[in-house]
Amino acid sequence: MNVVVVESPAKAKTINKYLGSGYKVLASFGHVRDLPAKDGSVLPDQDFEMLWEVDGASAKRMKDIADAVKSSDNLFLATDPDREGEAISWHVLDMLNKKRVLNGKSVKRVVFNAITKKAVLDAMADPRDIDVPLVDAYLARRALDYLVGFNLSPVLWRKLPGARSAGRVQSVALRLVCDRESEIERFITEEYWNISALLKTPRGEEFEAKLVSAHGKRLPPRAIGNGEEASRLKALLEGATFIVDSVEAKPVKRNPGPPFTTSTLQQAASSNLGFSASRTMQVAQKLYEGVDIGGETVGLITYMRTDGVQMAPEAIDAARRAIVDQFGERYMPEKPRFYSTKAKNAQEAHEAIRPTDFDRSPDRVRKFLDADQIRLYDLIWKRGIASQMASAEIERTTAEITADNKGEKAGLRAVGSVIRFDGFIAAYTDQKEDGEQSDDGDEDGRLPEINARENLAKQKINSTQHFTEPPPRYSEASLIKKMEELGIGRPSTYAATLATLRDRDYVTIDKRKLIPQAKGRLVTAFLESFFTKYVEYDFTADLEEKLDRISAGELNWKQVLRDFWKDFFAQIEDTKELRVTNVLDSLNEALAPLVFPKREDGSDPRICQVCGTGNLSLKLGKYGAFVGCSNYPECNYTRQLSSENGGEAEGVALNEPKNLGTDPTTGEELTLRSGRFGPYIQRGDGKEAKRASLPKGWKPEDIDYEKAMALISLPRDIGKHPETGKMISSGIGRYGPFLLHDGSYANLETVEDVFSVGLNRAVTVIAEKANKAPGRGARGTPAALKTLGDHPDGGAITVRDGKYGPYVNWGKVNATLPKGKDPQAITVEEALALIAEKAGKAPAGKTAKAKAKPKAAEAKTTKTVAKPKATKAKAPAKSKKG
Q1: For the chain, where do the domains classified as CATH 3.40.50.140 start and end?
Q2: Going by C-beta distance under 8 Å and a sequence separation of 6 or more, which residues neighbour residue 7?
Q3: CATH 1.10.290.10 in the chain, residues?
Q4: Where is the active site (predicted)?
């Protein structure tokens, strides 16, 4: 019997079928141990010893693996073919060695780039040892990220309340977003004019030509800066005659791009499908691990975490055959195309993302895939096959035209493109992100027949005013592209980095654009001011290059850590003497457009508008930063720090509580106030006063007595249900406007519905909510929102929505989804991990001793649960320097 360890349980079932009864394939469910999330898990003063921790679920899985290995002949470590996969194999092997279960058994590492029978069997026939330099690179990266996070984040907490965390790559990515926002704020709009002529050939065909020169001088883009100049040039053309100087038709070839890498797939899925980076990876993971195709689980794409652009020779041959079959002989070039990778780390430059079988066209597998899966597979298949197709042949025609008005001359140009042979375009073309300039050149349209030296008839002269626009905000796709260009992060880290920025509320996404929030801009400004080196793009890219050199065996990972820690620790120590006033002065200057937005009346935005003499400045409170007056407490003006300009007026309006009237029932005053969490209504004073925050979309300036009374009086009784006789009420809760009846909630569409919905409509909404859950049983078990598939041990895994939020269910096991996790986006692998973690906890009634067994077992064989003597990382001892 041979034991094979993979990461995913779904993959385990498929691979076991390929290998047969002589093998037992077990899943590690990803990483089996990790650094505990507490200070002291990486010890610089002990040459960066790392103390690993194993949770209960992982301990149980490792016990199953160890038990299987005891009675096996050989162990094959078949985790994913990347750095993280190599690290998981290393962790598993290290733990098995410490458990002393190997006893001289053969241990081999196997990697396969696709979950197909041929790929798996070929890999098993060609095993290797664990790649130690690749593991060293993982350890160095893990230690670096830990040291930065657990030493820099506390500095933020002390000096910048409200900030949540900093990270080696995360903070640099955030800086990119914030720098772009600052660029937009500094941008000065400029006026410019474009002038064109609608002309007609002697054959009666019309076309447009653009003005490119006047009075013997070339006009660069946006050279015509005002309406007066535009009018003079327009007048010149109005009275001119037009003659064609030259016509040049030039053939141009466009070559296809390479197949997808991780980052280009994420970019294309964003531009073409509107997928986030994390959604792209979730769907790609499922396509890689396998889909049921006619009763057989088949991996449809190769491994999706890669920076390689080359395809295997057999895949190229298959693509060329499919090109002939799908498009015809002419679409297959004479020779195969080969692409070179830009990745600096050759060991991680695996094969590009491609279909495992080009004969499986999207149309052939459509019925086996869900909507998102087929859309992403279609993209991967088309890009993969296009990469081996013939070039597109385009004819680009340029006509140069002279306008002559009594000796005053101007030059015009008309450009048109015609696709003579579509080539690879028949399969795939890239879409551009908003704000990106197309460099294809074939968007000019087709020109009619134009001949040199012939006269043209003027139809109309157009003069249009334009204004320059600031650079667009980053989307997830364009940010990933920029990070890749700068050498920041690596393919497997992009999605997680973006998710962290969202989870920390450092950025929000609106219409697919990343908008930095005030909290994120404060963190970036702080780090740029006091940790400049560690958010520099070049420094971060240079560190990434060192990590790549470690994985290539060119650098010692401990020495890289020593060099980094020496300077970083000194920088951390320097901040201990940093005074809050220094921090505020620096932030006031760095974030002036955000903190002191321009006023419409042109007055100094740094002078308090309430007292007229105090200076406004950032202040740091328990819940974060806000703007306040220097004359406090005589002037108690405050305002929230917002990413939206215009917060000044709101701050002035809410500086003092605004009296709105008196509640006729209680006789208490109603006031509009401003707090750390925004404007709110308050009735009465003191601790017993009732408060109600303004709903989203309600502006303080629009609040009057009637609105305040309606809001403070919630919940609102609508009437008794005609069947149950119980009261139906409406209100606004954590998840928005709702109806409440007999302990059950039903959502309302808008906040306004809370105040206006009548009894008949309320009864209908409640009935509709009840009808949407036909699967509820006698105990009120929520109906399944989504069925993910079967558990490896049997039984369906479903996603449900309960009283305390969405959760996954398998039999009697219910596991709550992590905060912010979209229940529709969860994968079966994520669900299995949550279920395993939940099931790994001992049920009520078990003894503490039984509950602690897995960790106790681990403690005997590793240092992972031992508490470090030092809880704080220290600088290297002087004797170790150099």
Answers
A1: 2-130
A2: 27, 28, 29, 30, 79, 80, 85, 88
A3: 262-390
A4: 303
* Cα 494 from Cα 262, distance rounded (Å): 9
Q: Confidence band (pLDDT; 50, 70, 90) for 342?
A: low
Give the residue numbers marked as catalytic: 303
How confident is the model at residue 422, as a pLDDT? 94
Of the candidates 32, 7, 262, the residue with the CA atom closest to the CA atom of residue 115 = 7
Cis ω before 336 (30° cut-off from 0): no
pLDDT beyond 80 at 420: yes
Q: What is the CA radius of gyration of the chain?
A: 33
Amino acid at 337: R
Q: Tokens 């070339």 — which residue?
A: 218
Q: Angle CA(702)–CA(704)–CA(706) in degrees, nearest 5?
A: 130
Q: Provide mean pLDDT across the span 64-92.
A: 93
Distance (Å) of CA 577 to CA 147, 530, 583, 810: 21, 12, 11, 54
Taking the C-alpha atoms of residue 457 and residue 410, their distance in angstroms, rounded to an integer, is 16
Q: In CATH, which of 1.10.460.10, 3.20.20.70, 2.40.128.20, 3.40.50.261 is domain 140-187+472-581?
A: 1.10.460.10
Sign of CA pseudo-dihedral 404, 405, 408, 410 = negative
Homologous superfamily (CATH) for 191-255+393-467: Topoisomerase I, domain 3 (2.70.20.10)
Q: Where are the beta strands (DSSP E) in 62-129?
A: 74-77, 106-109
Q: What pLDDT shows up at residue 597?
A: 84
Rounded distance between C-alpha atoms, residue 166 and residue 143, angstroms: 15
CA distance 583 to 525: 10
CATH 3.40.50.12280 fits 2-130, yes or no: no
Region 268-289: mean pLDDT is 92
Q: Are strands 690-693 and 727-733 parallel, antiparallel or unpaired?
A: unpaired
What CATH number labels 262-390?
1.10.290.10
Where are the domain boundaries for CATH 1.10.460.10 in the chain? 140-187+472-581
Report pLDDT digits (tens) over 622-674: 666 788 888 888 887 887 776 544 344 344 344 457 788 888 888 888 988 87
Q: Helix (H, G, I), strand (E, B), or coil: what is residue 175?
A: helix
Q: Which stretch of DSSP H or E encloses residue 384?
A: helix 371-386
- If you ran DSSP here, which 8-state letter would residue 173 be given? H
Which band of pLDDT confidence, cut at 50, 70 and 90, is reported for residue 435? low
Alpha helices in 452-556 (DSSP H): 476-486, 494-503, 518-530, 537-551
Instruction: Count how many residues are written for the chain.
Output: 882
In the block, residue with structure tokens 């004819």: 395
- Both tokens assigned to 222: 């946006």
Residues of the chain with CATH 2.70.20.10: 191-255+393-467
Backbone angles phi, psi at 203, to 5 degrees: -95, 5
**Cα 376 from Cα 529, distance rounded (Å):** 42
DSSP strands (E only) in 290-441: 291-293, 296-298, 392-405, 408-421
Provide the CB-side half-sphere exposure for 134 (13 A, CA).
Answer: 21
pTM: 0.72
- Do 188 and 467 meet the contact criterion of CB atoms below 8 Å apart? no
Produce one character per residue of 337-376: b if its CB has 16 or more CB atoms within 10 Å, e if not: beeebebbbebbbbbbbbbbbbebbbeebeebbeebbbbb
CA dihedral 509, 511, 516, 519 (to 10 degrees): -50
**Is the CB of residue 789 less than 8 Å from the CB of residue 13?**
no
